[in-house]
Design brief:
Strand order of the largest sheet: 5-4-3-1-2-10-9-8-7-6
Structural class: mainly beta
Radius of gyration: 22 Å
Strand content: over 45%
Number of helices: 1
Number of strands: 22
Order of helices and strands: EEEEEEEEEEEEEEEEEEEEEHE
Shape: globular
């Protein structure tokens, strides 16, 4: 299995141009794609100007339609910036002279990636366009891992050119948007997800709306039945159902740090939380187990290391957690 390292985005953003200050509530939309290590995550962000005040919200389409509030929102004729406190992310970009593009940087957990947003202004009677890709079908099933039955999904989309694309989502884990390839040959259904070395081979039923097959990854083969659906898997809002997740403002300092592993010649990045009380403090270092892992030890949208660091630093103990 695999875990979330970075929240990655395909964004539809609605923002208000600066010249409408003082007018009625106004929206303008932007779309863009952030590609990080082969994963893509579609988000929808709405920023509204009402009574000379900007407010914003982000909806993660591939993570249970989770909704996150935007903060420190700034917009003028030259730049757009905001932060997303709940996931420790921020964006800062420059607007082109024509006002049709925003080129900037999306940052999270010490990782910075380029992101370009393109302007899209829907008319009043036309729904906002989220992407030039439309869902053709989704193949969804539960993987039997003993006490856990994570939901797996393969999405097939159609572009305006008629070309199709495929993506893989580990819905329960919140890791989505992996580039995939797919094919149907007679009664055989095939999906390959190269970035995570995943294969699925299944046999279709007579109706062609379900497949019995095998999930193969990491030397392990697991039976998996997939059902074809016209819509994507719908799950609960994963963030709002995590009441233990700490939310800013915090009564301690969050400091981004890096340190070098000289033996393997790599630089590690993390977060050091330091109590604001004066004097020396004991320090706890949180170390993850096997496998790729982010500094919060994120699993199925739970963040146990973030919870531990918050609890300890509120009680006078500094904590280092790292990717």
């Amino acid at each position: 299995m695999f875990r979330m390292l970075l929240t990655t985005l395909c964004i539809a953003i609605a923002v208000c141009p600066p010249h409408v200050v003082g007018q009625e509530s106004t929206e303008t939309s932007w779309t863009g794609t952030l590609d990080a290590r082969g994963t893509k995550l579609r988000l929808e962000m709405v920023i509204t100007l009402a009574e000379e005040k900007l407010t914003g919200e982000m909806r993660s389409l591939d993570q249970g339609n989770a909704r996150l509030e935007l903060a420190e929102l700034k917009l003028n004729s030259k730049s757009l910036s905001f932060v997303i406190p709940e996931i420790g992310a921020k964006f800062k970009g420059k607007i082109s002279e024509q006002g049709t593009l925003v080129k900037g940087t999306f940052s999270q957990n010490g990782i910075q990636l380029p992101l370009t947003l393109s302007r899209n202004e829907p008319s009043a009677d036309t729904p906002r366009k989220e992407s030039n890709e439309k869902l053709k079908e989704a193949w969804i099933g539960e993987l039997n891992m003993g006490i856990m039955k994570p939901v797996m999904q393969f999405r097939i989309t159609t572009l305006t050119s008629g070309e199709t694309r495929a993506y893989f989502d580990s819905v329960t884990e919140g890791r989505t948007g992996f580039d995939a390839t797919w094919a149907i040959d007679g009664d055989q259904l095939r999906f390959d997800v190269a970035p995570i070395k995943l294969k699925y081979r299944g046999t279709l039923n007579e109706a062609g709306d379900a497949a019995e097959g095998t999930w193969s990854q990491g030397g392990r083969d697991v039976p998996l039945k997939l059902e074809k659906r016209p819509t994507e898997y719908s799950s609960v809002n994963v963030w709002k159902n995590r009441p233990q997740r700490p939310v800013a403002p915090f009564p301690y300092e969050n400091r981004e740090v890096t340190f070098e592993n000289k033996i393997d010649n790599v630089v590690l990045a993390g977060t050091l939380t330091i109590p604001k009380q004066p004097g020396q403090h004991p320090v706890v270092v949180l170390i993850s187990g096997s496998g790729a892992q982010d500094r919060d030890e994120t699993l199925m949208e739970h963040k146990p290391f973030l919870v531990l660091a918050d609890y300890l630093s509120r009680r006078g103990i500094a904590v280092l957690r790292y990717d």
